[in-house]
Amino acid sequence: MPRSNRGHSVAMKALKLPLFNDEKDDLDAYLIRSDRACTAFEIRPEFWSTQLARLLQGRSLDVYQRLPAEEVDSYESLKNQSLKRFRLTEGEYRKKFNMSKLEVGETPEQFVERLNRYLVKWCEMAGYDNDYDGLKSLIVRDQFFVTCDRQLQTFLKEKGKLSLKEMAKAANDFYEAHGYPSDSHEPSKRPNGNMKQPTLND
């Protein structure tokens, strides 16, 4: 075994984390812990997938075992498929960002960091860059969606993941085919602060 590979093998054996328990552990927090541990132990990125797989069991291990052969060594593929398996989707991160509160024992600084993490993951899962333009598009797209009537919301969700520009065009096509909403909509059909507003991933 080449010396460099032998060194990484030793480092991986020295890196000890508890097995992931999908009944009790938070996957998002566990992945962050795994990322930081691999960085601290100087594990090369191409070995991160193997390292994480050693710590999986149950449903999370099933995700790894079902990866296509060409994606087994891709840490990003394993993470993304795991997040989907445990329903940590764009809509779930949006919900976490909007509804999270300061937890018992959590400092304000830690809470702010958690909110930052949820926002970044929301952007990533929505397919936007983590910069000003990406964040602006994410917020405008989300606000546009929640103001649409139910029929248009269903139509847009059926289209799958859409960028802001694609969503606007799809909505325009819908109105061209079905007619634009009139000013006579009943107030009860409009989203309001007392009703749960649907999201793209509800």
Report on the structure:
With 202 residues, this protein is mostly helical. The chain has two domains: 3-88; 92-189, DNA breaking-rejoining enzymes fold (Orthogonal Bundle). The chain has helices spanning 3-14, 27-40, 48-53, 58-65, 75-85, 90-99, 108-126, 132-147, 150-158, 164-178. α4 (58-65) crosses α5 (75-85). The longest helix is centred in the middle third of the chain and has 19 residues, at 108-126. The model is unreliable at 184-195 (pLDDT under 50).
The CATH class label of the largest domain is Mainly Alpha
CATH architecture of the largest domain: Orthogonal Bundle
Estimate nothing, just give the exact number of structural domains: 2
Uncertain spans: 184-195
Helix/strand-derived category reads mainly alpha
Q: Major beta sheet, specifics? A: none
Helix fraction?
Answer: 55-70%
Work out the radius of gyration.
Answer: 21 Å
Coarse shape? elongated
Order of helices and strands: HHHHHHHHHH
How widely separated are the two ends? 50 Å
Number of helices: 10
Strand content: under 5%
Say how many strands there are.
Answer: 0
The CATH topology label of the largest domain is: DNA breaking-rejoining enzymes fold
Give the rounded overall mean pLDDT.
82
